[in-house]
Amino acid sequence: MIGPGILEYEFFQNALLAGLFASISCGIIGSYVVVKRMVSISGGISHAAFGGVGLGYLFGVDPLAGAFGFTTVVALGIGVLKEKAGQNLDTLVAAVWAAGMAVGIICIGLAPGYAPDLFSYLFGNILLVPRSDIVMMAVLCGVVIFVVAVLYTQLQAVTFDEEYARVMNLPVTWLSLLLLVLVAITVVMLIRVVGIILVIALLTLPAATARGFAKTLLSMMAVSVFLGLVFSLGGLWLSYLLDIPSGATIILFATAGYVISLPFSRIAAG
Amino acid sequence: MIPAIEVKDVSFGKNGALILDRVSLSVMEGDMYALIGPNGGGKTTLLRIILGLIPARTGTVTIYGRDPREGRQMVGYVPQFRTFDFRYPITVKEMVLSGRLSHTRGVLRRYREEDYATTREVLKRLDLTGLMDRTLSHLSGGEQQRAILARALAGNPRVLILDEPTVYVDTPTAFEFFDILEDLKRSMTILLVSHDIGVISRHVTKVACLNHTLHTHNTPEITEDMIAATYHCPVDIIAHGLPHRVFGDHAEKEGQ
After folding, report:
1. Under CATH, what is the fold of the domain B5-83+157-255?
2. Residue A216: which of B75, B83, B89 has the nearest Cβ?
């Protein structure tokens, strides 16, 4: 068992804080991703983040900073093309998904030396999050909460019925792009916790589980944040007990939670 | 008098196919204007052009003399049923309140007391007060339809535009819905797209048939030549062998 003594270790405090900030932002933004059916777009954005990590290595920038810049550009690019591409969005997402990863692989190949913590970007390690990244996560989490608090009703209108929001002359295009940027921010925050490959699960599973028990978007977000905490801290504890990788354990724990919740959901599955 | 909605020579094409061919119509204030026609005939496309959601290739649309993107502030829109996700976690009250966003201002678009007051009135008017804390997914089809109408009415529209409002509800519910519209007709102009010729017949003031081109006599009668021009099939099949009498016949049955 983890004794109370472990809380005194900085790495463990950092892991708890990382879990907290990740749960808050993925609970909030993940709720939009689920209700607006942006799961595949978010998957594309998160995998493209690997390109940013690679660019970071190549140009000697912090890989997470590289990922932040790159995913934001990719998210905006998808948003702009989405307006024009129509039903080809699926293909577009697949292209961004693969091309982003390919950029990352080439950059890392070109970068001098060996990329020591590459594995942790791909699969995450909540126990290895440095203090500087915790500060960045706290700031990004604050940005997400602020933006959503200020624009809650408008984002609700746009994600519920985009066409009606346009008829009411809300700035739908801007709000949609903003939502994609918020997804990009959240993805970058989650990379440290579960890694690029698994980000999409932590972004969607708590929200998808919460949806079955929530009457309003706000309550869905609250339940989702709570579930995110349970999944990430519970998964961390399990991984410690069983001595297995933390990111993957968190995801499997979240998946189990989602599946178990389905029969109790107040909305029909599908 | 300025028409509530004026469509002049509007054409629209997609992927090389002409969907609307020089369509013109005028909806005057106080009209209940019905647009009927086969699937794929361009009805929804025409509504989307009127609402400024897509641009016409040629021709102009005005709402009370203004460009659609400005004039649509005066429009309440009831979109085709099930065009949005009914499992969205939103209560009836939240949904109806969101219809007030067209009246909010600034970047934040905060609701004011009058927005809440109007929402309460509309909920009461459509008999939704008891259901206002329910989620949309926990309503019957007819209740969902009233909730969508309530959102449109929350904006205090001068014009109400409805796209196939009764297509997914049963016939008694459809009749109830049209009774509500009959009541609304006194205070606003209504433009309505429908398949349901039988139900709309006794309510409308003007009817037009749209199948790429538009045919109307600006009267509530659907005549043989309109049907023939629109559906391109023998009139007696449509009219159950009673050309000209189809409307009157149905109206009598409904009255009983």
Report:
1. Rossmann fold (3.40.50)
2. B89
